[in-house]
Amino acid sequence: MGKLKGNVLIGQSGGPTAVINQSLLGVIEQARRDPRVRQVLGARHGVRGMLEDKFVRLDKQPAVALAAIAKQPGAALGSVRKKPTEEECVRIVEFCRKRDVRWLYYIGGNDSAETAQLLEKVAERSTWEMQLFHVPKTIDNDLCETDHCPGFGSAARFVALALMGDDLDSRALPGIKLDVIMGRNAGWLTAASALARVRADDGPHLVYVPERSFDLEAFARDVEAVRQRLGRCVVAVSEGVRGADGKTVAVTKEVDAHGNAVLSGSGALGDFLAAELKRRLGDKLRVRADTFGYLQRSFYGCVSSTDAREARAVGRAAVRFAREGGPRSGSVVIRRIPGKTYRVEYGWVELERVAHVTQSLPERYLGRGADVSEEFLAYARPLVGGLPRPVVLP
Amino acid sequence: MGKLKGNVLIGQSGGPTAVINQSLLGVIEQARRDPRVRQVLGARHGVRGMLEDKFVRLDKQPAVALAAIAKQPGAALGSVRKKPTEEECVRIVEFCRKRDVRWLYYIGGNDSAETAQLLEKVAERSTWEMQLFHVPKTIDNDLCETDHCPGFGSAARFVALALMGDDLDSRALPGIKLDVIMGRNAGWLTAASALARVRADDGPHLVYVPERSFDLEAFARDVEAVRQRLGRCVVAVSEGVRGADGKTVAVTKEVDAHGNAVLSGSGALGDFLAAELKRRLGDKLRVRADTFGYLQRSFYGCVSSTDAREARAVGRAAVRFAREGGPRSGSVVIRRIPGKTYRVEYGWVELERVAHVTQSLPERYLGRGADVSEEFLAYARPLVGGLPRPVVLP
């Protein structure tokens, strides 16, 4: 790369997280330290703002406002779910030329990495020299190459605290409780529910992830076995659980009869599973289902301090990697440093290794039956920040 | 009353709250200061423990364990939903005689106040002299005689923080978002969603409570009007909304076709309303529904400091009111002291004024259209503790 000088452009894309604005701030503060950078622009709603020439001067915002925004859920620039066409990519590079943008940072998940990759290909062929970095975020934790994703720790914290409280609620008023947790293709967030356990009889007693095939009959049998043993059963189940045929439970015929097949933003799966349990185990059972839905990413006031710190750091790291003589593009990854104490370092990989691919829970993180492994718990525990340890009367 | 000496018995009943254990601690600590009190017993699962002679010696628990329990959601003694028969009341009074219980404190909602009243009538006719106090709790805030109920402030805080985050999420990815909130007969908790607003265009943009009749056509029209104006619409709707015929929307024929008619622990109402909006306003609209469910009372880590303090105080107050020469029975109430600064005092009323009756949102707390009034916001604001003020980029 030549000796670039010019403006920085930041976009946010995909589902917001509790800490996506920390990454925004990370990019802003690191970019403003760079003497080559003139202005720091924020595209409204990601690539849509670039296509419509809608942006905000982030370097003109009061420091106190930016500091507040870093702590807020939601995507402060506005987000978008859009894969630009080749023609749109050309227009976006033209927008960058017009606005003197030499560095583009796109904060998002694997689809956003793909968008960055598409843009990079077009930029490479153009006469406009620029660097493009993908800054990772996703509550789903399903990006490849990275140890974990900014956004996951806070969502996992929400899930763990929800299950911890739910287990205490279930001890008070026993019954069968189902909690449907986000994660269409990967069970990371559902698996994090197991962090709620302190004692052997704490819930969740059963954890169902999409990585293992889901069978209604086995499910009912598992639940009944726990209920016989403990007088109650708390279940964490991923919205994306699938039958042996690979179809999600929520799009089988049985569920269509119960309504919508949309997974998030719908209580259909939970209601369906609750009805199935009643049908199989008895109508008089107290069965309740909660679908945690968007609260998992948007609840205001549930942030993992580790997650917040790392989300900020990946934003800063992206700007550092886009140095003079550095790579033209890449995606920031978090690498865990082996050792007893949790420590990480930040690196980068080529966009193609992250774009459009996802990482499921590996076999070693799955436990026997409907559960996760100890190894998963050791992996996930440092990510969610300190958790309370509920006390139960003897 | 004579000069009673003996044991204290505490029970918890009905749905748990984030602070019901604060009230438990309040009773324990005040009772242990009373030289007339020998032991402090906790009945397991309320009246059921009294019928089955199952209890725990609370005065033998380590102080550090009790202090931790005070901060936990759930009902640490176990709860129950049970109205004892007259014969069972007789057996419970016999249990009290056998266990030398002279003071019974029952922590719960209006049904629990009724249980206390039934027990009191039987106790009055018996030769066993004792005092019975109801200690109020309910996230629904629907008890009569009291300014507000312990448990409401924390649940209202959860709802306000959820809506605040949801509004930021909706700004990032605009669409129509429905949030279904607990409260079968009274809209207090749904109304509290309006505390999430800071700016004029903040959500929730529409608030539907059971106190006003709910019409699907008007609902769709309201939503569309907001969407036309702001490009998005965030709606808070009570699980108990009713049509003009007085029937809840969730038990009309349309909803039966969508599944379960249970209000809490089911996503049926939200899914039904989302489907209706799509049908009426267009299939391509992005409509999502979340049903907050039990998280509202059980999420671990969302407590209003005001609520926690007052829940502790009503427990203590109950013990003080059950003094020598004081009333045989009663229910503790919170009275707001008029003035610019929020202050309360604690009083008591006869059980019959609280038992089995509920308090809906009064007309003055309802605003024009689907909204609450400024007066409601002034009433509710001090109860939820300090809230963040999200910043939005210009």
Protein model, in words:
The structure is a homodimer of 394-residue chains. Chain A has 394 residues and is α/β, with parallel strands linked by helices. The first copy, chain A, has two domains: 6-151 and 302-353, Rossmann fold (3-Layer(aba) Sandwich); 154-300 and 361-383, Phosphofructokinase domain (Rossmann fold), CATH 3.40.50.460. Chain A has helices at 20-32, 47-51, 63-70, 86-98, 110-125, 152-172, 188-192, 216-230, 253-256, 268-281, 295-298, 305-321, 374-380, and strands spanning 6-12, 37-43, 55-57, 101-108, 131-136, 176-181, 206-208, 233-238, 287-291, 329-336, 344-349. A seven-stranded mixed β-sheet of chain A has the order 3-2-1-4-5-10-11, sandwiched between helices. In chain A, strands 7-8-6-9 form a four-stranded parallel β-sheet, with helices on both faces. Chain A starts with 5 loop residues before the first strand and ends in a 14-residue tail after the last helix. Mean pLDDT of chain A is 94; it is low at 252-262. The interface between A and B is large, with 69 and 69 residues.
